Amino acid sequence: MSGARGSALAMLRGQIERIETAEVVHQHDRVALGHSEADGTLKGGLARAAIHEVFCEGRQGAAATGFVTGLAGRVTARKPLLWVRQDFSEIEMGALSMSGLAEFGLDPRRVVMVRAADVESALRTSADALACDALGAVVLELWGETRQFDLVASRKLTLAAQGSGVTGLMLRMAAQPLPSTAETRWMLRAAHSPPGPVWSAWGAPCFDAELLRNRHGPCGRWIMEWKCDECQFSEPSTYPQPVAAASAHRPDPAFLQRRAG
């Protein structure tokens, strides 16, 4: 084995060891999501300085985008967010709504959108952005199956996130999960919103969030409601069934007694 090859293998082993021991380094650097059961399973919340994957079927893209936006709003800590999208994603899903981002806790003035022509450009841009500690989070949105995002590319993103402290959120639409170094992996579906007050036409956003992978704990599945005012997730609200009001034309009981007498 040549010296250069041996040196490259030793460097790669060192990188893998740092990834595998990341729990010790980052075990206290977590941000609570607000949903008690999910936070308990995640040992306090979503880990910063790590990569998290969110998968969905193509028709569930809007729900997954909302969920990722909510996660980003929790972890950015008032720092700027870089959102990297393939051109194809915008063709399939349309442009992101700035008012929608604000509903999920993101200040649109702190969001920088990057449109990448292909997967290679998106991965390269995301890796460079994750190495910049001035950012709070980086969202990488990829559509469909991609051979370019393999275990090597995943390790590169993870090492960049660990080195800078920036959180990476991968939004994978219409794709199947593959081996990666992600801290968590989620499968997202839309859930029915609970009925809102009579003056509101829409209920609060609700997500059927399944935690498929948790590197340092168990998995689970929950219905998670987004609280726009508090900018956090929570257990679904419960609304009592309305009680029918008493009839306004019901005869007076005293009058009926007098007639009976």
Q: What features would you describe in this structure?
A:
The protein is an alpha/beta fold and 261 residues long. Helix content is 35%, strand content 24%. The protein is built from 9 helices and 11 strands. It has a 9-stranded mixed sheet, sandwiched between helices. A two-stranded antiparallel ribbon has the order 1-2. Helix 1 crosses helix 8 and helix 7 (119-130) packs parallel to helix 8 (151-164). Residues 22-27 and 240-250 have low confidence and may be disordered.
Global shape: globular
Question: How does the helix and strand content classify structurally?
Answer: alpha/beta
Secondary structure tally, helices: 9
Report the sheet with the most strands, covering strand number, pairing sense and barrel closure. Answer: 9 strands, mixed
Descriptive tags:
single chain; 261 residues
Question: What's the SSE blueprint?
Answer:
Elements (H helix, E strand, L loop, with lengths): L2 H18 L1 H5 L3 E2 L4 H6 L4 E2 L3 E6 L4 H15 L5 E6 H7 L4 H6 L7 E6 L2 H12 L6 E7 L7 H14 L2 E7 L10 E7 L15 E9 L5 E8 L4 E3 L18 H8 L1
Parallel strand pairs: 3-7, 3-8, 4-5, 4-6, 6-7
Antiparallel strand pairs: 1-2, 8-9, 9-10, 10-11
Task: Characterize this entry briefly.
By secondary structure, the chain is of the alpha/beta class.
